[in-house]
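The passage that follows is intended for readers who have already worked through the single-chain material. We present the inputs for a multi-component assembly, then the predicted structure in tokenized form, and finally a short commentary. You are encouraged to pause after the input and sketch how you expect the pieces to fit together before reading on.
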Amino acid sequence: MTVSNELVTEAAIPRDGNVPNIRRRSVTKGVRQWWPYYLMMAPGLIFFVIFHYFPIWEAKIAFEQLRIIPPNIWVGIKHFQTLFSSPIFWQVLVNTLIISTMKIVFVFPIPIIVALLLNEIRGGAFRKFIQSAIYLPHFLSWVVIAGVFIAVLSPSDGAVNDIIGFFGLQPVSFMTDTGSIRWVLVFSEIWRSAGWDSLLYLAAIIAIDQELYDAAEIDGANRWQKIRYVTIPGIVPTIATLFILNAGMFLNADLNQVINFSNDVVRSKIDIIDTYVYRIGLQTGEYSLATAAGLFKAVLGMLMIVAAHLLSKRLTGKGVW
Amino acid sequence: MAAHNVRRTPLERLEYAIIVSTLMFLVVLTVQPLLNLLAISFSDPGKVAGMSGLTVVPNGFSTEVWNLLINNSAVQRGLLNSIFITLVSTVLGVVLTALMAWALSRPGLPGRRAIFVFVLVTIVFEPGIIPDYFINKRLGLIDSYWSLILFKVVNAWYLIILVRFFEEVPKELIEASELDGANPFQIFWYVALPLAKSALATIALFYFVFHWNEFFRAMIYLNDQSKWPLQVVLRQFVVEGDKLAMVGVVDSNNYTGASQINIRALKAGMILLTIAPILAIYPLILKFFTKGTMSGALKG
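Having made your guess, compare it with the prediction:
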């Protein structure tokens, strides 16, 4: 499509008459110059159309009654009404908001602290060793991390309960405890991302002008004063950007994580919009209702991320893209 | 930094000790659970039962669990499926992303902005898994490896990263090649790609990790168990606690004493087996990812 359009518009410019030579050459050069680039983009563009834009069109089933023999019937916002009158939907919405809030409050600050600590380490080899260890979990799948946490939190022989037992307390079955499962999500998120995410802050710290530290030193500043008056102010823009971005992703409580930490006992506590869509859609077969829930999240999520982007651009000059 | 070391007061030394121990505590928190699993998987299967989650030393030594795992047909198939899907999608992803990124990075390309917006929309608006499922169904990709290979085969984020990189390629280089009569494909191949080696390696690692770790789509699109990648086999066994998928096969075919084999040890081995390829490329990840994110050497 794009290729032929481009060729047509270029070729439509007259080549004879009063058009100066130089212009004529540039037009023919233009055609010759650009078509190969559209050809290079073609596979990627086709991919985006099929796997990203067709699904947007396909999402219209949220407004339709599906029938085995087409055509489907247009029912307007009926599925959305069903959704908003369903107590389960409100429950998953509340769960999503609670889990996201917990993650922002308890997970977000950790990488900042880790970066501040790492920056104090003198000696490149030692720092590299620490970094190599704490970055690793970021590259593991949630299936693997769930497997690790099931082992670590096992009531019979897990490390955590071994420690609890050492103090003479009763073992806790964290993975099947409605009171603790959300904290398991928080801690597994910290385990996975705190190390790697600190890299972003460390990069910002490295970029701080060394002269500021030298000046602080001359003024007799100690370690904490340097951190407080030089390092932290230096990374505030990065903190602000990442905070706003995280807030923009508020409705993404991470399907891949939750689905691996979920079980029948604790489901009501950590069932989020994404797992709800998956369950009623692909497991129960209520495609239209599930798509409606998915669309609700997609539209709200889009508004939030665009708002976050604009806000971040305005405040710090750095956006999402 | 040298001056810093010279005049250290006892208080400063204490501070430093606290900082170091805090970070070492994090290192232990990260690594110990994996070392514990390693110890369990290499322990004598009969002695696993009483092992603490805190230990990092095998109780006795045996490779029985690992022998069982690598001879298990479900594991072998899972491994082959994962390798196939990951390699094909990584190669395809790098090629298509590089081609598109190079074209998009050319200043003056008509429609450049529009295509950027076109790509950004896909990041911002995701209609969810049900429409995605229907598209794959329509294309006949259910129960096909291609439903996984083509998923984010061009990842919009990686595309943008690569575009930003290609934009830095000096204009003079391109113009010189054009004067030499090179066509755009030759310029892409002989000029752009060699310059982008480290960026391409980074993108390749991104794709590798992403596809190796993918399980959700494999779970919903592959009903045929023989096509499952390792992550889904692991999930079935460890997260869902479905022992039959693993031990059943082993028990009936290869190993008569399988019922005595500690499930905990099998699970530990299975988790580590799934991590193994990531560990194998981890030095490369550290080299390229950290460099890419830090863009420059660390001070000190």
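Commentary: The longest helix of chain A spans residues 21-58. DSSP finds 15 helices and two strands in chain A. How closely did your sketch match?
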